[in-house]
Amino acid sequence: MLLGAQERSDAWLHYGRNYAAWRYAPIELVDRSNVHRLELLWKLDVLEGTKLRKGGFEATALFYDGRLFVTTTDSQLLSIDARTGEILWRYLGEPDDPRLPSWTGPVNRGAAIVGRRVCMGTGHARLRCFDVDTGLLLWDRMVDDYRAGAQITSAPLVVDDKIVIGVSGAEMGVRGFIDAYRVETGERAWRFWVVPAPGEPGSETWEGDSWRHGGGTAWVTGTYDPELHRLYWGTGNPAPDYHGGPREGDNLFTNSIVALDPDSGERIWHFQTTPHDLFDWSGVAEPILVDETLDGERVPALVQVNRNGYAYLLDRRDGRLLRATPYTRTNWAFLDENGKPVIRPELARRRSKRVCPGGVGGKNWPPAAFSPRTRLVYIPHIVRCQTVLPGPYEPVYRRGLPYTGGVASYDEAPAEGFVTAMDVATGEIRWEVDNHGPNWAGLLATGGGLVFGGSFDGNLRAFHDETGEVLWEFQTGTGVYAPPTTFVMDGRQYLGLASGFGSMGNGTSGHPPHELHSDYYLFGLADEPGE
User: Fold this and answer.
1) pLDDT (tens digit, 9 = 90+) per residue, 290-306?
2) How many domains does the chain have?
3) What pTM was estimated for this model as a whole?
């Protein structure tokens, strides 16, 4: 079922819908001609009756056998009857302790389903699997030490008999890794250290013992190619974020796309997007797997819309660069023929550096969508620059405290946001639509010729996938961070959305335009008059 998830209209089984992270549903029941008839069927306050913190509702809901599986702030997991919005069962674990070190807030972006199990990571850096029918906890494993700043915010990825997951926490000096655990038992099968220890390949790119707290956390869900039998994962920024003095070198394998053997966790190849990063451009964005015809040859490729302002197209067999093009405002570097950035001289000689994009990137964690109909990647796009100033002294790591090594201040001008459609093969921007503030909401493309996405101002919108024309919108009452999903049940197409302002709004993207909520919405087509 997981291998064939893309062809199923009656389920949403992966975080990215399929292993390739397309977020494309080939469903045509809602299309350009009738999308204006979408109406709200039910709304559920997922935190009602709990003491969990509102906001930060960034989840992709899974759908299977008439049920939605939704994660919330503070690591709650719900099973919901999709027909009625009734909660079937609820797992309410220990809330994330607000006194503990954290950089992202209490967010959780989703679960994974396999057989009769549904599994999720927690803010306490644990991985848990439950019985899909009852919510009974089947096993619980500690992935990392949350007291040092580690969290799990991303959805796991199931490949064969393993659950693959990474952690967040580079800003706290957490040393990043990607893990695989056995579905049946929770036993750890392997670990790939993003930051290598002395003597391991790549360790020569770290000075002294800087590797011990080198960051590189992998906090967005990766992808999988069943034909090549390879995992592809984006890795995060090195630590300390803004001060490169303690960690001279390229700092492999931070800010990289890594291809891993899913059986052993061994690295097959890597491509580093931002060596020796000084700007917090965590390169974790989902590697979207696409097949492209280039110079008359079919190439199995991947595209990553990177936080540093460039979109990369790589041959996923060997990591060879096929193309890198800017998709947003960039001022910091030019790329050599191998795609390695060379910082502009006028910027390199300054201690204080104003860079575009800023640390939130041209695209942050919210997922893009790819449509095989149009061959376009739809990007949740942010435009904001920042000035980075490293500290006057080399930073000292202290367990459980921020380890950034400097400060970053955003331009006073408000952040802008767009839905941007980019041609995968050429990197050409086909269209771009203002999304009324910084775009932190992921996207969905459908066979009905539509792209759906939320916005900072609280609207869920439907766009014409070839022109960007807005065809429908609905005001949720709070800023939208989560990507929408869609599925067919009882012969009818539904659209689902988690809406609740996310944790990264204050200070980086402005302030929430509405009250904090954590509501799940389900939409369907209204009947035509006379039907």
Assistant:
1) 999 988 899 999 999 99
2) 1
3) 0.96
